Each structure stands twice: as C-alpha cells, then as structure tokens.
Prior knowledge:
Largest sheet: 5 strands, parallel
CATH topology of the largest domain: Rossmann fold
Number of helices: 19
Strand content: 5-15%
Structural class: alpha/beta
Shape: globular
Helix content: 40-55%
Number of strands: 14
Number of domains: 3
CATH architecture of the largest domain: 3-Layer(aba) Sandwich
CATH superfamily of the largest domain: P-loop containing nucleotide triphosphate hydrolases
Amino acid sequence: MAGDGGRLLIIDDEESMLEMLSIVTSKGGYQVTLARNGEEGLGALGKGSFSLVLCDLKMPRLDGMGFLEKAKEQGIEAPIIMMSAYAAIEDAVAAIKAGAYDFITKPFKADEVLLTLGRAAEHMRLRRENLLLRRQIDDLQREQGLADMVGKSGVMVSFLQTVVKVAQYDTTVLITGESGTGKELVARGIHHKSGRADKPFLAVNCGGMPSSLLESELFGYVKGAFTGAEKDRKGIFQEAHGGTLFLDEIGELPPDAQVKLLRVLQEREVRPVGGARAVPVDVRVLAATARDLEEEVAVGRFREDLFYRLNVIRLHVPPLRERMEDIPLLCARLLDRIAAKLDRQPPELRSATLAALLRHRWPGNVRELENALERAMVLAEGSVIMPEHLPENLAGMADACSTGIEKVLGTSYSMKREQREMERALIAKALAATGGNKSKAGLLLEISYPSLLSKMKEYGL
C-alpha cells in the first residue's frame, strides 16, 4: 500500500534495518527521515512535524519505550509503530498501553510494513475528520436554537454528524420524529450551519392555522383577492427569500395547499392568492412531521409527488428512550437554562431523582423532560431536587429503583461522575457479552476501537 507523501520518521540502531526500511518506505511514497536512537528521534521531532513514526524497541541510550513516553509527554500526535526482534506479548501490550498505535515483529516483509503504515495513516485521516466533525457538532450545539440537542451517545453523535453534513448542501430536508424530540431545533441548526445563515429563518406550523388562511400566509395575496384584502401582502415564502423556511407538521397541509407547495418546489416561484403573475423565490425548504407520510400517501391524504419532492434527504430525530445515557447531560443543560429563566442557581439532583428520570420512557421526549424539570425546580425552591418534586407519574418510580441506582451511582450528585460510572458499567457489560472481544464490544457500544481502548485504560478495565 503506497503512502500519500507524508513525512515518516524511522528510528533504529541497526544501519542495515534503517537502509532497508528507508528504501521500502521511500518506494511506498513516504518522505523519510532516519534516526539511530531515541534521543536522535526526539531531536528530529523537535525540528519538524511527522505523519508517522516507526521506532525500534531495543536501542542504546534511549530505547523505544523511553522514546514513546517522552514523545507522548511532548504531545506528539503522530501514530507511533513499535518494532522489535525480541517481541513478547507483554512488550506489545505495554507499548499499546503507553500510547503506541501498533506493534510489528522483526523480521517482517515489505508489504507488512507498508500495510501497517497505511492503516495508521488512514486512522489519522479518520481521526482528523472526526475531530473536525466534533468541533462542528460543538459549534452546532452552541448555536442558537440547538442548545438542547446535546448528547454523547452513539446514536446522537451519529445524528449530529449527519446534520452537519446535510447543512452544507442546499437541498430539501424532511425531518421526522416523535413529538417533543426537537425537530425545529434541528431545522434551526441546519440553517445556522448553512450558507444561508445570515438570511431569514421562518417557521410555520401547517396544522396551527385554518386552511382558509394558510395559503394566503404561505403565498401572499394581492389587493382585492378576497374581502379584507385592502393591499398586496407578501407571503412567508417571499419573506424568507434567500433564507430558510421551516414547514412544521407538513402532514397537516390541506390538499389545495399541497398542490401549490409542489409547484413552488418545482418552479421556484409563488403565485399570490388572486394574483396573475408568479414571483420568483430562492428559499430552502425544511419540512417536519410526526406522522408516517408513507402511510398518509397510501391512504390518499398526502400527495405522493409532493412527498418525493420533500423526501430528498430524511433526518429522523432519535426519541429520548433510545438515548437514555444522554439524560444526565440533558438535565445539566436544561437545569442551567431553566435556572436562568427563573433567576436562580441551578439545583442538584438526588441520585434517587435521577433514577426516576432514567426509568421513565419519556413519550413526550425532551419537551416532557424539560417540563418535568421546570416543575420540579419551582416546587423544590431550595438547592436540591428530590423525587417528590417530580410529577406524580415519575416520583413513584424513585422508590422502586433508588436502591439499585444507589448501588451503581452511590450518593453523588455529580452528573459527570454518574455519567462516568454508567459509561464504565456499559463497557464492562459489552466486554462480558463479547467474551472480552474488544472489536465486537466497540461495535455493540457504537464507538471506535481506539476510543474503546482509551476508555478501558481510563476506567481501569
């Protein structure tokens, strides 16, 4: 496997090995720098950046493990691949635990070296992409309108990564999901991360106004179109020109309006009610529904051609019950926001209170959680939210599960600590279910293999 022209540092005290590796990797497309011991290697790292490092384990003056330790202390992020002719499983484990990317045993074939380097380069590429997406997700979560779309669960991180990608393309999006999942928050996030961010974002609830008014609101009207139309008025499509229009509850759109919306999406122009001339519009349409539009099409309540126009890209917002591990993070964010609204300090949650929240299935999703926390904060008055401050349907769950949750979480009120304990328990459970197979455990947990190794090291597993 050929390299991509990245800079490679090779550290080995054997001249013949240096020469062989230099020839092989240079032919593989790498720009090679040679060092004859760990000290020379550190000196080379201090003079320039490298994409990859190949380092022998046994060397005079400063051996491979010593080099690895000092390189990590200096914050070197390039993957370091250790080599040794005296390899034992203990050496490989020690090197990986100390931060090495991989370990190969001498003698090795040229293809094996290039394959390992190629995997490491691909790992770094994916890591850079993930870091970029993480930063974009963090930015997205800080944007106005997406503050509550928090979560570190695999399903939520994957969803937000998709949101970031979709936002970059000026195409129609259908956002589906249960009531209370935050579909409008997603739409606002897409707008704020798009090229239309400095243009208007307008939202319309298609089920929130009479059908007799909906068409004139969406498409506008001309003077004299109907009784009371005393002057021309722009519709929401024209008001949103250059920006984004969010059509919530699109499944509630009456048949006549469906026909006109389809025409707008096809022709990129609107015809005001009573008007004889079409007006060009440049609007990105984001639509949302809690209904099953395929079923609505099947029974004839929703136009099939409109459905396909809207369903260019579909984003399904995961319900809260599918990302329960995000509840501690959501609670922290929501309590901060509610406290600011009530002009109070954010309260703490008793472990039994959190236990009740974790046991509930949340049919109303994040909106229901926010309402429950606001009610609890009002009733609590003090600095701690107890189970009795929750709505009755939640408070009754606290006694049933408080003993079990206390065993797992202890009596700490720290959400960060409790989240760590739950994460550690999930990893241990996945490892047990896979018989210790870390690759399979990573798939179950929906995290990468390097992330799993890092977390296992962090939690002492």
